[in-house]
Amino acid sequence: MKVIFERNELVTAVTNVMRAVSTKNTIPALEGILIKTSKDTVTLCGYDLDIGIKTEISANVIEEGEVVLSAKLFADMTKRLPDNNVTLETDDKLITYIHSGVVNYQIIGISSYEFPELPTFETLECFYIDTSVLKNMIRQTNFAISDNMSKPIYTGSLFDLKNGYLNIVSIDGFRMAVRKEKVGTDINFSFIVPGKTLGEILKFTAEEESRVQIIVGKKHAMFKIENYSVISRLIEGKFIEYEGTVPKGSSTRLRVKTKDMSAAVERMSLLTNDKLQSPVRVIVADEGINLHCTTVVGKASDFIAVEYEGDEVEIGFNNKYLLDALKNTETDEIIFELNGPLKPLKILPIEGDSFIFLVVPMRLS
Are residues 142 and 234 in the same domain? Predict the structure, then answer.
């Protein structure tokens, strides 16, 4: 194999693809990137058996072939090459020579036969969504994905297509995030995507006008973002009936400035840490919100003037869970809805229903 690459294009491709490469594995090929040529393009692929990322880039293919190279070593080399042209050449023993300007490397490759094939699957459903919209939906729900492997179903987000809308839902037992957008399909279908896959999708840069094609099979899904394909296993199992967990109505309703509330909760949080857990006490009364926090370190209090309707209420929250929800609203103002001290706080946009966040309260002593 002999190929001449444009350096910046190669570096970008390697950087993106290697995010799916296993860092520690008993199979050496899984710690590498598969490089495969065809006519005037080169395919690069990384795969850790859970998620695979592949892309095609243009190149001057002088002699076709394929090889697997150590992802970390190859990435470190390409980033430091001095010239705009990079020549990659392998011999019949898979010794790989990399030239750029006056720099020459010689490394040992691995046979492509040792690299596992990416999953192929029958398409059950397929739809498109704007890249910026999808990334925004993922960003606003990722915070509520569980990291508890005893309940693997909640280590991913539910993609629920229903009545022309896509709902992305994450839940970890302490909070729930639902993000809703209209999509150009009438299919009714749902599947669960691992949080790791969603985190990798967020890292891709794409043109503002680009769209993501999402192809779903029985056990796998593929996200096509411009010239990249992200192939992921899906999480099997039954997700909670999330719509039934959202409280109906409210006994207390407030209109809150997001920045003011976030700042107040952060001030209370200065007295807490992982070893000093104490609820942030929220009291809705006297024309506003009184906040209090008490730990062995000391005490703190704050007040935010807000208008509210309904009953006075005193309720406690884990400061991190409340802050995560507030920071991911991405709006200047929000609605708080409460149903007493023991029911979850519901956070809504001022208008519409593009998101619903629930935060389960802590019991106050």
Answer: yes
pLDDT in tens, 143-165: 999 999 889 999 999 999 999 99
- Cβ atoms of 195 and 169 closer than 8 Å: no
The mean per-residue pLDDT over the stretch 26-34 comes to 92
Q: What is the pLDDT of residues 290-332, one digit of tens each?
A: 999 998 889 999 999 998 999 999 999 999 999 999 999 999 9
Our CA angle for 220, 130, 168, nearest 5°, is 55
What whole-number distance in Å separates Cα of residue 199 and Cα of residue 327?
Answer: 17
Eight-class DSSP state of 121: -
The torsion defined by the Cα of 344, 322, 193 and 188, in degrees rounded to 10, comes to 40
Residue 120 located in a structural domain: no
Count of positions (residues) in the chain? 365
Residue with tokens 């992982």: 274
**pLDDT confidence band for 181 (50 / 70 / 90):** very high
CB atoms within 10 A of CB 302: 18
**265 in the same domain as 236:** no
Quote the number of domains for the chain.
3
Q: What's phi and psi for 263, nearest 5 deg? A: -65, -40
Please check whether residues 235 and 268 belong to one and the same domain. no
Its domain, for residue 41, covers: 2-114
Distance of CA 246 to the CA centre of its chain: 23
| pLDDT of 205 over the 90 cut | no
* Whether residue 305 sits in one domain with residue 263: yes
Domain for residue 365, yes or no?
no
